[in-house]
Amino acid sequence: MTDDGRGMDQLIARWLREDAESSRVSYVAETLERLDRTPQRRVTGTVRQALRIERPILPPVPRAGQLAFVLLLLLLALVTSFVVVGSQRRTVPPIGPAGNGLIGYASDNGVTLIGLDGSSTTTRLRGLGADTNVAFSPDGTQVAFLSRSRDAIVTQAAQRLFVAAVEGDAAARDITGSVPVWNWDDPDVPPVWSPDGTRIAYSGFDVATSRIVVAIAHADGSGATTIAPDVWWLQYTHPQWSPDGQWLTFQAFTTGLEHGTQLILSRSDGSDRRVLIESTTRSFSFARVAWAPDGSALAFSRELSESPGDYGIFRYEIRMATETPVNPPNTRAFDPTWSPDGEWIAYHEDDAAPEGASRVVVADATDAGRPRRELPPVVGCSLAWSPDGRYLLGYAKGCEGALVVVAVDHPSQVITLETPGARGVVSWQRVPPDAGG
Description:
Elements: H1 5-21, H2 28-37, H3 45-50, H4 63-86, E1 99-107, E2 110-114, E3 120-122, E4 130-136, E5 142-148, H5 150-155, E6 160-165, E7 173-174, E8 192-193, E9 199-206, E10 211-218, E11 224-227, E12 234-241, E13 247-254, E14 261-267, E15 274-279, E16 289-291, E17 297-303, E18 311-317, E19 322-325, E20 331-338, E21 344-351, E22 358-364, E23 373-375, E24 384-385, E25 391-395, E26 403-407, E27 414-417, E28 423-431
Antiparallel strand pairs: 1-2, 1-28, 2-3, 4-5, 5-6, 6-7, 8-9, 9-10, 10-11, 12-13, 13-14, 14-15, 16-17, 17-18, 18-19, 20-21, 21-22, 22-23, 24-25, 25-26, 26-27
Helix pairs in contact: 1-4
């Protein structure tokens, strides 16, 4: 393999950036090996004669000296990069290890941030008065939430989408544009950030066409696009981004005399739409979809029969188009969520019998066949993993009031957080691994 000077410069620059942001081993040895293979530009004979160069201007440098000089240059570059990076605020990548930052929830006082130690800060992050469904950006620097005026609750007016920086004094900004939020059928659905933190997807109502669509707003407020059904009797709701940000899944169901619910896979620009799986009745099937961190599979809840509340959790392999049940027979299951490392799926489970017991289950999401774990029924709603995968977060009872945090490996360790007035979906901030709690 050959390489030129520009390729070598780009390679070294990339390695320096990676080394500055991680604790990986040094690439010095590979750099030297690549340098040994890099052809050197030589002065042609004609030019040498024109300049009357009869012998080298400088004496040859021993091989050991060349290596020492290269190492010195790399060391200086590394030190410089560490100084530059160290002077900047670190952010966490959207995928991979992360630390546990603050927990965000909404109430009549706006968005409140609270730590595991119970210390809380009521921020200036307020919308129109009735705020709900908080979602931190993947890098933890911004927060999105839904809001409408208190008077609008009575009239069931549409919600608006707000975004704000977690730090600083700037107020939250309404970035909804002309496509308000649609959540009349399912109020506890948060806005969903793209993995790169530049866009937010939500269920919207396109006023111009009177259709329920997937809306995608730019986080900087520069505008929004929509993915709309081709026919008036279809509705697109509950979008979820793929880990690479290239695809979206969303629910589609029919209105009027037509019945049925579909899970749609689409590119983020609305192209290449296809039906992955469908249910014969109009239901909440596919309203809760979780992508595996590697993008290879989905977990969702789907109606098992037309009996109210009879839902199960399934794992769907995208490439093979195969569906596998996760919860055992004679149980009902809801709201799956994938662990950050892709090893486990957590969900709510009830016994199918009347007055059956309820619990939170953590099931193996691999082929290892590890036994499932059952946690005490202390988490009633809004089940979510901590960024480091050690805890599960949710409400103590119902979908409002006090929040609880349960240690997955030690289920008896339950932390109750005093969060008066909390409502809707809550979110856990991702921070760099060495900065989390």
